[in-house]
Amino acid sequence: MTLVKEKIILGIDPGTNVMGYGLLSVKGTKLECLVMDVHVFSGKDHAMKLKRIFETTLAIIEEHKPDELAIEAPFFGKNIQSMLKLGRAQGVAMAAALYRSIPIFEYSPKKIKQAVSGNGNASKEQVAAMISTLLKIKVGEKKLDATDAMATALCHYFQKSPSSVSGTKFNGWKSFIRENAGRVLQG
Fold first, then answer.
1. Which neighbouring-strand residues pair with 22?
2. Of 35, 51, 57, 79, which sits 20 to 30 A from 187 (CA to CA)?
3. CATH of the domain spanning 6-183
């Protein structure tokens, strides 16, 4: 009897106003979306938002018992203050995982988009469509922060797994598409 390796990956798209999260169950090469949602943090006190991000992340960890955390790295945009706030949000989410001894893996937004859609410059909507296709779920009503978080968990799975969802090794997106034509959106 062969035991199927099982783990849960928590993906987080950090933010001080909205934090997306997704829990991906991995059983061998079978992937399943356990939860994909957002938490909204209101108020003007930045320190209190950080406290709530920590507490929320810790509550998600305690409820779902993930084995690993995959988190989106802050990116430099036009506003340095926004990047600093994102970095703080990411830091307290990471601290919650460290508090529970969960290994952390960080990925750039471009790397996440590339891993999930094959295009590092894909739109949030394109990423959401690929999440729908790969996990065979409807994401139309989900907030894009939630699908970004699930994309982060999937990116981690793809980076750490020697095989694809079907268990077949692929050497690029062309071979994946060729072998999975019915699962990939064309257009």
1. 11, 36
2. 35
3. 3.30.420.10
